[in-house]
Amino acid sequence: MSGRFQTPRGTEDILPEEQPYWRAIHDAADEVTRLFGYERLDTPTFEDAALFEKGTGDTTDIVEKEMYSFQDQGGEALSLIPEATPAICRAYLEHGLASRPQPVRLFTIARMFRYNRPQLGRLRQFNQFDCEVLGSGTALVDAELIELHWRFYEQLGLQDLEIRLGSIDDLEARRAYLDRLRAYYLPLRDQLSEDSQRRLDRNPLRLLDSNDPRDQELREGAPTMIDDLSPEAAEHFEGVKDGLTAAGVPFVVDPLLVRGLDYYNRTVWEIVPKGDGRQQSSIGAGGRYDGLIETIGGKPTPASGFATGLERVIIEMKRQELPLGDAGAPDAFVVHAGAEGG
User: Fold this and answer.
1) Has residue 310 been placed in a domain?
2) What are phi and psi of 278, to 5 degrees?
3) What is the dihedral of CA 245, 264, 307, 7, to 10 degrees?
4) b/e map of 27-49 (b: 16 or more CB within 10 Å)?
5) What gap in Å lies between CA 27 and CA 241, rounded to an integer?
């Protein structure tokens, strides 16, 4: 053998000196979910590939080019999970959680898998902290999730973060906005990235969350949705803002904020380090997805949730030089040597 084996590209070992960060994260997640009354649910590492094709959306980066999919020996099409929300919704349906008192509050901490270009904070195998509320369409549930999300970072001691809050209306009301968005981008098609040129006809909303510098420059002049919401979505958005204000949770409204998944409607948010305009710097994001459970075969069920990339959280913990407590070596070892000759 000519060389030594190494970790596959886009993966990392978690060495002993890194473990205190992970302990702090798990402790913080356990504490805030306990305080807010969330129960843990863990799903398999792989699922039916069609769950994500239907649930996550076939125009998303995840489904188009990032899923680790394979056919097993029995001919079943499977995918390593790229995100937890569709899997949690599948479990909600499969195990009859809709028959419990609603809403159901769930969380998980799990490994995810996406084939992308590895860079700082973006791996092919990564860990997420996910919280979901299924069975409630109220604005107060969205505000609760955003507050829980914020308190998680506070529990870790992170500072200088910012909640960016937006609304992308409901699907039917959004159609008129998509027409306006297409009309804005069509004369600029040749200036867009190749991915965005292809998506312009299928789902122009995806252009607003592109990380390509060419697309980000054109994004600044795009029409906004938040000033032309349907009456129902506008009332819901005001309720979210009122709930956050009452809870003492700071936020800024971002009129062009969208999420990179097709299932979101109404409330969307992301949490970023202050003063950092790069979308890649988001360390957590979420939104409402009232149509997802119906899309994967259930009855219409309102739901909302968020995910936090834990490797990105650790990068921010290190950048802020957070103290992690005493995780040093013990002062002494006690060793039982046994009888002589034993």
Assistant:
1) yes
2) -75, 130
3) -150
4) ebbeebbeebebeebebeebbbb
5) 29
Q: Residue 239's closest CA among 164, 146, 173?
A: 146
Q: Phi/psi zone of residue 146: left (φ > 0), alpha (ψ -120 to 50 degrees), beta?
A: alpha
Q: What is the CATH number of the domain that holds 309?
A: 3.30.930.10
Whether residue 72 lies inside any domain: the answer is yes
Q: What type of residue is 133?
A: V
User: In this structure, what token pair is assigned to residue 284?
Assistant: 């957590």
Residue numbers of the domain that contains 280:
16-165+273-319
- Model pLDDT for residues 212-237, shown as the tens digit of each residue: 888 888 888 888 888 788 999 999 99
Number of folded domains that form the chain: 1
Residues in the chain: 342
Contact 169, 244 (CB under 8 A): no
Q: Looking at the domain assignment, is residue 70 inside a domain?
A: yes
- pTM > 0.85: yes
Region of residue 29 (left: phi > 0; alpha: psi -120 to 50; beta: else): alpha
